[in-house]
Each structure stands twice: as structure tokens, then as C-alpha cells.
Design goal:
Helix content: 25-40%
Structural class: alpha/beta
Shape: globular
Number of strands: 9
Order of helices and strands: EHEHEHHEHHHEHEHHHEEE
Strand content: 15-25%
Length: about 280
């Protein structure tokens, strides 16, 4: 595995690969890698000649600065993990390398996708995401980039950015990778206490039951049922549960035939914020 910390050196290396006609797959991450990340990399390896993984904890997408400070930095173990699955290239630039001295976000228009769900609770988050992902795409110029569906709203926003900025790559959404007990894999899971970790799978169990209820009950009843479930769990605090149109991400009040829907949830276990989602059958 070749490791780069400077964007110019990476671009020079990639230009030689592209001159040879090699296809580039890209998996952007913030490190603290787990099996979910590795599943993205493995999918990229199946469809591309060369796979690049970036590790960069992006300061502009954290609305809560304390969350940024506490974000796990595990570069040494991350590097070993990447080597163990024969990743080709690791790019882990410094904040200065990416932003120079101007650590601010661009302002993006994602056609309203940014105002739903996470956007209501995390001010400026998606401008930060758009800024770093667009910057990384411009450095790497991949043929395909891979993102997990756990951050489904982020996935849709990145697709919209690629479309609006006419970037020449394909975005691939990959299914949520879960622990054996159903908890969606996340770098944040390592911060859960033993008690919190034991109860956290309740989030996915509730989503699965909500999916079943959605086939026979109306939206309001499903929403009420989920809210009541979390009132019974003192270690978990529901921030939001919403059923939304998969394409617009707008919350729905009633079902319409022929449309695709997904349930989204955000829950606090103490200070740790966990998100998940599930596709619904109408």
C-alpha cells in the first residue's frame, strides 16, 4: 500500500495510472475504520483496477465542536486494517493540506435535501460534507466513489452535488453493514458504555417492527408507536423518527402508491448520537 499525505504527490501518481487506462475506485472515510468501511473497500476492489481510501476528519462538518475533539483517531490500526485487505493507496492529508488557512465551508444548494432530517438538527453539516467530498473528488478524480447507506441522506446529497456540478464519476450506495445483533456499524459505537452498547440494538429492532407496521397502518400510527417504544427505554433518547420519500427526503403524512419510502431515526445514548434507516414496503 502506498501512503500519501500531500495532494500534489497523489495527483502525480494517479495521472500515471490514468494514462495507463486504469480505473480508480474511491472510498472517503474519517478513519476509525470498521468492517462496514472494509465492505465498501471490497466492493470497490471488485469493480476497479486501483482503490484509494482517504482518512480525513473534516472539521467543517461538525456542528458540535466537542464531537470533533472526541472523534476517535486510530491511524495506526486503520493502516494495518487497510494493508490486511490489500488496499492500494491511502491518502491522509492534514487539515492545513486540505484547507490551507481557510477552514470554512462552501455554501451549497442541494435542492432542499439539506433541509430535511439531519439538516434540521445539525446546522451547516451538509455544507461541510459537500465541501470536503467535492475537494476530495477534485484531487482523486475517481471513476466511482462508494458510500454506505447508513448515512442515506448524505448519500443522496452527494449524488445531487455530483449531478449539479457535473462531476465525471458514479456514486455507488452500499447496503448498511451491521453487527450480529443488528446495530449499524459506526465509529461512534466504540464510545458507548457497556450498558448503552447492550441496549443500542433496540434501535434496529424498532425500525424492523415499524417497517412491518407500515404495511398495514397509516403513517401517524407508526410514528406514535415508535415514539412510545422509546419512552420505555431510559438509556435511549429519541431525537427524531420520520418516514420520508426516498428521492426528496421530505417527510410524508400519508402513503401513495408507486413511491419509495424509507424510515429514518436518530437516537442519543447518553452523549453518543446514533443514526439508522430502513427501506419500507408500501
Amino acid at each position: 500500500m502506498i501512503i500519501f499525505t500531500e495532494k500534489h504527490a497523489l495527483k502525480v501518481y494517479l495521472s500515471t495510472l490514468k494514462a495507463q487506462g486504469k480505473t480508480i475506485g474511491f472510498v472517503p472515510t474519517m478513519g476509525a475504520l470498521h468492517q462496514g468501511h472494509l465492505s465498501l473497500i471490497k466492493q470497490a476492489q471488485q469493480k476497479n483496477d486501483v482503490v484509494i481510501v482517504s482518512i480525513f476528519v473534516n472539521p467543517t462538518q461538525f456542528d458540535n465542536k466537542e464531537d470533533l475533539v472526541k472523534y476517535p483517531i486510530t491511524l495506526e490500526s486503520d493502516t494495518k486494517l487497510l494493508k490486511s485487505i490489500s488496499c492500494d493507496v491511502l491518502f491522509h492529508p492534514s487539515v492545513e493540506e486540505i484547507y490551507q488557512e481557510n477552514i470554512v465551508s462552501e455554501n451549497f444548494d442541494f435542492d432542499g435535501l439539506e433541509h430535511q432530517m439531519e439538516g434540521k438538527f445539525r446546522d451547516g453539516h451538509f455544507n461541510g460534507v459537500g465541501t470536503i467530498v467535492k475537494t476530495l473528488f477534485e484531487i482523486v478524480e475517481p471513476d466511482k466513489a462508494y458510500f454506505g447507506q447508513k448515512d442515506f441522506q448524505q448519500l443522496q446529497i452527494i449524488k445531487k452535488m455530483v449531478e449539479k456540478h457535473q462531476l465525471n464519476l458514479k456514486i455507488k450506495g452500499c447496503k448498511i453493514f451491521r453487527e450480529k445483533d443488528g446495530l449499524a456499524m459506526s465509529s461512534r459505537n466504540t464510545r458507548l458504555t457497556k450498558e448503552q452498547r447492550e441496549i443500542a440494538p433496540f434501535i434496529y429492532k424498532t425500525l424492523k417492527k415499524a417497517k412491518k407496521k407500515f404495511t398495514t397502518e397509516n403513517v401517524e400510527k407508526v410514528n406514535e408507536w415508535v415514539e412510545n417504544q422509546f419512552k420505555k427505554e431510559p438509556l435511549l433518547e429519541l431525537e427524531y423518527f420520520t418516514i420520508a420519500d426516498e428521492n426528496t427526503l421530505e417527510t410524508i403524512n400519508k402513503k401513495e402508491s408507486g413511491k419509495k419510502y424509507r424510515a429514518f431515526i436518530a437516537v442519543f445514548a447518553g452523549e453518543i448520537r446514533l443514526i439508522d434507516n430502513i427501506q419500507l414496503k408500501n
